[in-house]
Specification:
- The chain is about 55% helix and about 5% strand.
- The protein is mostly helical and about 350 residues long.
- It has two domains: about 5-190 and about 310-340, Rossmann fold (3-Layer(aba) Sandwich); about 215-305, Tyrosyl-Transfer RNA Synthetase (Orthogonal Bundle), CATH 1.10.240.10.
- The strands form two sheets. Strands 1-2-3 form a three-stranded parallel beta sheet. Strands 4-5 form a two-stranded parallel ribbon.
- Helix 9 links the parallel strand 4 (about 150) and strand 5 (about 180-185).
- Helix 8 (about 135-145) packs across helix 9 (about 155-170) and helix 12 crosses helix 15 (about 285-310).
- The two termini are about 40 Å apart.
- The relative contact order is 0.14.
- The structure holds tryptophan.
Length: about 350
Amino acid sequence: MQDVILTGDRPTGKLHLGHYVGSLKRRVQMQNSGKYEKIYIMIADAQALTDNADDINKVRNNISNVALDYLACGLDPAKATIFIQSQIPELCELSFYYMNLVTVSRLQRNPTVKNEIQMRGFKQSIPTGFFCYPISQAADITAFKANLVPVGEDQLPMIEQTREIVRSFNSLYKEVLVEPEAVLPDNALCSRLPGLDGAAKMSKSLGNCIYLADTANEVKKKVQSMFTDPTHLRIEDPGHTENNAVFTYLDAFCKDEHFGAFLPAYANLDELKEHYRRGGLGDGTVKKFLTEILQSELSPIREKREEYAKDLGEVFHMLKIGSEKAETVAAQTLDEVKNAMGINYFKGNALK
Ligand code: TRP
């Protein structure tokens, strides 16, 4: 079978370095490998609305931010179909039929939903749409017959739930839907880049992110503010490189050639770490090095982003074309689904 990829992001903010190492970079590589039959990248605005009904402008205004971040990282509408979820009404229709295949208790047991309900403090006031979003996510994936879904680990329960829906549908009605598989980031570092403050995760709500749209000066200041080793007070003190965000970022981004370019006194990261542990290496030097590395990775992205931002009309046009293409595919699947369920009364399956 030819591989079809679908993945997406909720437009609730600009994308950050965590998204970049955890998923964007990989998507661009997959896109450019030419190995995949089709790649769909979805801006999941309808899913974002499931817990932002009172803040529709946040979702609306971040669609262009996410689209710009995509383009800046190298996603290319000529190779990947980039579209907006809410513009594909077929996804709602599919969700409605899939709802009958999922019990309330199964949704309650979904670990991601459970966790998010807790994080958002919904208690007993869970919006129904939010509670059901795993079902709508199954519609997103199956509408395009995607067999591969590149996501972070936190999304595994969604893929599992999708697989269950596919199996129920196919066995109750007809083999129409494709069972997807998650594609996880290839190393643990990339799946969870810590925040600037050393918190487990970069997250908008914690305000500990470096955004792809940040200026060079913002990046520099943010790196300067990063959490390091609280016991490393004076330069000569021995330091710890574990649980030290600066070193975790270096683990994720640093390559040997960066030393030649920015810090020729060392040959590689092991030497740098060794010196830090021994004492005599200041945080300032390490942070300056990290800043140089991040700037070299981020400045081409930032420049491309600024270029695309000059013509948002063109970006929206790209999204419109992508959404039209996506809708054609989703409509075809919906047709097959309705045929399989016998609810195509006016298409050669008349009621008796
Ligand atoms: N739930 C995903 C997130 O929060 C976004 C998303 C929506 C998605 N639909 C999807 C991801 C389908 C993969 C496939 O990041």
